[in-house]
Amino acid sequence: MLGGRCLCGTVRFAVHGRLGPVAYCHCSMCQRASGSAFAANAPVRTRYLTWLGGREAITEYESSPGKFRAFCSRCGSPMYSRRAAAPDEVRIRLGTLDGDPERRALAHFWVSSKAPWFDITDDLPQYPADTATDPSH
Q1: What backbone phi and psi angles, to 5 degrees, belong to 106?
Q2: CA atoms within 13 A on the CB side of 13
Q3: Tens digits of per-residue pLDDT, 65-105?
Q4: 20 to 30 Å CA-CA from 73: which of 2, 5, 80, 93?
């Protein structure tokens, strides 16, 4: 089991089982939603996700048609994103995890929108946009 929480501790959850592929998303929406150069995300099936507290404090924002970003309404921590077209999955923000997810990022996506002040210095594959196998967005 892997636990997670928002900054203020109101929203708490547990993931039972392994997270999906980790990816870094550099799109402009993830930059704004995270307040950083990119968002680190991993998908998890909702059946493996248990809300331990504060589920009612989560506010969802539809950032584009069918794409929702969820935040703690008390502290503003980004918690997950989800797509209406994939109701059995959410993409957890890795910064909310209490421990090591035991997975490492597989690639950088949307590098065409990368923050100009951030240099990617690792050897991970870089994709200019979304791909059919994009697990980050």
Answers
A1: -100, -20
A2: 28
A3: 999 999 999 999 999 999 999 999 999 999 999 999 999 99
A4: 2
Residue identified by tokens 């928002």 is 6
Residue 29 CA to residue 12 CA, distance in Å, equals 24
Domain that holds residue 6: 2-20+42-103
CATH code (residue 15): 2.170.150.70
> Which token pair is 52?
């331990």
pTM: 0.87
Provide the residue type at 94 as one letter: L
Counted domains in the chain: 1
Provide CB contacts within 8 A for 25, sequence distance 6+: 38, 39, 41, 109, 110, 136, 137
